[in-house]
Structures are given as C-alpha cells and as structure tokens.
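If your schedule permits, I should be very grateful for your opinion on a structural question. Kindly check, if you would, that the fold set down in the tokens agrees with what the sequence suggests. Thank you for your consideration; the sequence and its tokens are set out here:
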Amino acid sequence: MPRPKISIIGAGNVGATAAHWIALKELGDVVLLDIVEGMPQGKALDLLESSPIEYFDADVKGTNNYEDTKDSDIVVITSGIARKPGMSRDDLISINTKIVKEVTQNAAKYSPNSIIIVVTNPLDAMVFVASKVSNFAKNKVIGMAGILDSTRFRTFIAKELDVSVEDVDAMVLGGHGDTMVPLPRYSTVNGIPITELMAQEKIEQLVKRTRDGGAEIVNLLKTGSAYYAPSAAAAEMVESILKDKKRILPCAAYCDSEYGVGGYFVGVPVKLGRNGVEKIIELKLTDEEKEMFAKSVEHVKNLVDVTEKFL
C-alpha cells in the first residue's frame, strides 16, 4: 500500500521545517515545492540524507514543478512573504493573496481530492482565498492558527507554574492576530483550570504575551518570523487527518451558523479526522468572551473584504 503523499508548497523556513517534522513522524512521503530553482531540491536531499540516522522511512523530494505534487492527500501552503519588524500580519495581504491564489489553483488542479492546510499570513484571509479559488468542500480547507496560538499560551502557562508542558491544555478562539481570544476558563493543568492556579493579573499578562507571540519573535529575529512552532502545529494537523485521530484542535474552520459567524473561516475547536473538519465544537462563552470573539470575527470580515479586491 503506498504511503500517504504530503505536498508542502513553499520551502522556506516554515515549509522545510514542516517537512522535517512530517518525515520524522513517518506520516507519509513529502514533496517540497518552491519557485526558487535548486532550493527545495537541496533541502529535500539534505533532509532525506538524515533518515538513516533518525530511522525514518519516508521519501522526501524537492521540486519546482507542480506535476510532482499530483494526487497528494494533503497540501500544506506556506508560500508567501514573512513579516518584518513593525509589520502586522495584515500588511502582507496584497502580496500573499496573489501568491496563495496561484498556489491554490495549481494544488487543486493536480490534487483535486486533497485536503488543504493554509499556514500563510494573514491566516484567516488566506484560508478564505484558498477556499474560494479551489472550490473544495468547506471541510477540506483548514487554516493553521489556533494550534500555534494555544501552544504559545500552553508554553507560557507551563513556564509560569513550573509544570510539565504535557499536562497543560489551552484554548484560543478567533482570528489569528491581535484580536485572538485566549480562554483562561478552558485552559487547564491536568484538568485544573488555570484560574485556580494563578492570579488574574498574571493570567492577563500571559494572554497578552500570547497575542503578541508572533511579533515578539519577529522583533527578536529582525529578519523573518517564527517557524519551529508554526511548522510543528501544521504537522500536528497533518497527523490528525492522515491517522484519522479525530483530535479536538483549534483551527481556522468555516463557520456558518456555528458561533453565529455567518460564513467565514475563524479559529474554533474542531474534530480533525480523515475528512478534514468533521465537527465544530461550540463552547459556551461568557458575555465578555462573546464580545471579544465578535470583535475578532469583525476583524476577519474586514480582512476578507480587503482580500477580495486582490482576487
């Protein structure tokens, strides 16, 4: 039986590191595609040559040709320009809309039965682009955002409480940006809500740091943006889909009646399995949380309105 095929479009830091995680986990054979000649081929060969040391049996191939992505089970889109210090995710919109549009057209042409995972920023708008251009079923186009945001929140909680990251769960809703909605009530250490374990003031500091998590790394790096955690988050989604694990993970998914959103991709907890988004989990929110979520959705709507001008 052939191994699953995962194509990663964009062989920059996020794409190449996603290929690394996916190969290490032996989730399937990886095709790494980029428009820069030689770069995906070199990175793929380098990664493949680590397989005897790391004991993974997965083929890793680099290419500049979309034909090599034919019949992929999953296509991960990381193409686009990264943020620089002082840029918001939204500043990337005109350039990355054009890139994601072209990538999606090719991905859909060669892998019409695939599931698309979008990583490119501004995330919520780029998932909308991929959905519109591919014309795939809404459950087959998903954005990677909430896993990254929640893993940052989980990291900060674990460090603050000096506990194992394995025991920390967290939930973040809404758009992937300054309006994201971390939910302390639904964030726990081995089932104990963090609201029982630390002062409100400290929780608010961690929530703010989570919101600013991407910018904090951009400012430190000076050139480029985060890639270890974003690519690990994408790999977690690939694993849940290909192994039909049905993990409950926060992802940018198409909400129509759910959460009263009315037809946009926003970050919500979903059941992620072989069919992509198999269910959206609706959490009971307080009035304050509802208000923050509504603001976040409004921001996503505005982004989508801007995006449509470039489509």
In short: Residues 146-310 form a domain with the L-2-Hydroxyisocaproate Dehydrogenase; Chain A, domain 2 fold (CATH 3.90.110.10).
